[in-house]
Amino acid sequence: MKLSRLILTALLYGSVVTGVSLPNLAVAAEEKKKPAKPKTPEQIALEAKKKKRPVEVMSEKVGKQVGEAYTLALEDKLKEAIAAFKEIEPKKEFDNAYVNRLLGILYAQDGDYKLAYKHIKIAADLDVLGWDDQASSYQILATLSLSEEKYADTIMYYDKWYEFTLKHDENAYAAKAYSYYQLKQYDKVIEESDKVIKYAKKPKSDPYQMKMTAYLDTKQNDKAIEVANDALKVFPEDKKWWLILGQLYLSQENFEKALSSYVLSEKQGFFTKENEYILLGQLYSMQGTPYKGAVILEEQIKKGLVKKTAKNLGYIATYYRQAMNFEEAADTYMLSGAESNDPEDYRKAGESYNLAGDYKKAIKAYKKALELDSPKADLVKNALIDVSFYAEDYKSAYKYAKESLESKKYSKSAKGWIAYIKETAKRKGVDYD
């Protein structure tokens, strides 16, 4: 997780050299302070510790060298500034800490985070800097640790920073949550994510995502669903959470609630992908309203959001058939067959036309299946006996019945049909052969 030079520069810069304040971009970026609230006992104790901390200054010689080196940095001569700082040989602990802190900041600006970490750690470990500089050093080390994927160190230094500041910083809690996740300490992920949610200046989706993921990784899907529902209360217009909630209900095989989530998402205009509509259609079918599944897919094909493929047309036809809308099912199977040239689509169309009582169309569909060498030719011929007979085409019915005698599966049925066709044709005075 590498951080950009710009971000680090904004975060890291802030020091005092020989009594002159340097640019503190992190502070400058903060919002204006709100009216002070009554101090807590914890804050009062912290202020007492802050007052007791010794205030030291650099030796005159080192202060002068630091000023000269930093002037180079201000002139954008970063390499020269680093070289100048490296030539300083501080003897006092405070001078050593101060020089190493500034050198680490310059290395961070130069993009060398390993050396930045090394020098700022030296400064922080000496623990002699002024209160604010010591605190910011811990914050810098936490940031650098995260950039170098040192997750335990990230947590440790943010905790040290908090001890010095008592600041509830959403970014610090987010970094800790991410670090705990990498360390697979999922309870801590949830705890820190809750803090991000609590202390964020504006609601953010990320901590909910992190918290939900922690629950999913620990097989607590019910808890993950609770988080998704909580997120939706805060971000009702974020389509991601509606879809996530639907997927979570699907994982629990709670198809009723999954359907409800997807319906609400679709009605709010959050669907943008074909597979979302396909899944919605399947859920309608599974929950006993296949007609709605067929209609919504047809609508989206007309709008161009769902492709007019044989597969998608097959879904629609199946849903219409489940809804007992046999004529629509048959017509759609015919459209699917035109796209796929698959005899099975035409066979299913024939079945559906038969169920709808449209025997002439059924004959046409079945014949098309035979033309395309249907692997279920025996079944198709046996079906043609039925539809031809009820279409009063006794010659064709007799023809397919005779052909079906060669089928082991349908020969017995064919014999019965032959006798019935002969009897009916004679009674009506029409030819059958």
Automatic annotation (TrEMBL):
Start-end of each TPR repeat: 343-376
Transmembrane segments: none
Signal peptide: 1-28
Listed SMART domains: TPR (SM00028)
InterPro entries, alphabetized: TPR-like_helical_dom_sf, TPR_rpt
Keywords: Repeat, Signal, TPR repeat
Keyword Manganese among UniProt keywords: no
PANTHER family: BARDET-BIEDL SYNDROME 4 PROTEIN, PTHR44186
Official protein name in the record: Uncharacterized protein
Species: Catenovulum maritimum
